[in-house]
């Protein structure tokens, strides 16, 4: 088989790029302990409602001014359903599901995570713009999926 010189060069470049990309993924996974978003914290979904970490869902302000929101995503609501946080402060969301996979998306912001039974999903973000934001479940979770929504109220700093 006769392969043209330029074709050989391009085949070589293509193989080299694939090796580079696969290598980059491997390097990232090993060197930076890369894993899917959030952290790996497990919980028994059967006892999630009474687990000390989730027995009292709601908003708490830490001494340093940062805010923690603990919530449950369940068929077919978020608990609590209305969340009030201050603008301009880091807000850490911690949530889990006692039943099936749900989504937690704060529309118009970068707040978005899957909520998987057996795991605690966590992310931290800052809301710059005060206002009302819609929270939706973006993973199909059953017949009431499209009713599963909540509200985030971001209050102006200092109020
Ligand atoms: Cu919960 Cu869809």
What's the short version?
The protein has 159 residues and is of the alpha+beta class. Helix content is 17%, strand content 35%. The protein starts with a helix and ends with a strand.
Please write the string of helix (H) and strand (E) elements. HEEEEEEEEEE
Q: What summary fits the major beta sheet?
A: 5 strands, mixed
* Structural class by SSE content: alpha+beta
Residue share in β-strands: 25-35%
Low-pLDDT residue spans: none
| Morphology | elongated
Question: How would you explain this protein's 3D organization?
Answer:
- With 159 residues, the protein is α+β, with helices and mostly antiparallel strands.
- Strands 1, 2, 3, 5 and 8 form a five-stranded mixed β-sheet that branches. Strands 4-10-9-6-7 form a five-stranded mixed β-sheet, with no helix packed on it.
- Strand 1 and strand 2 form a beta hairpin.
- The longest helix has 27 residues.
- Dinuclear copper ion binds next to loops.
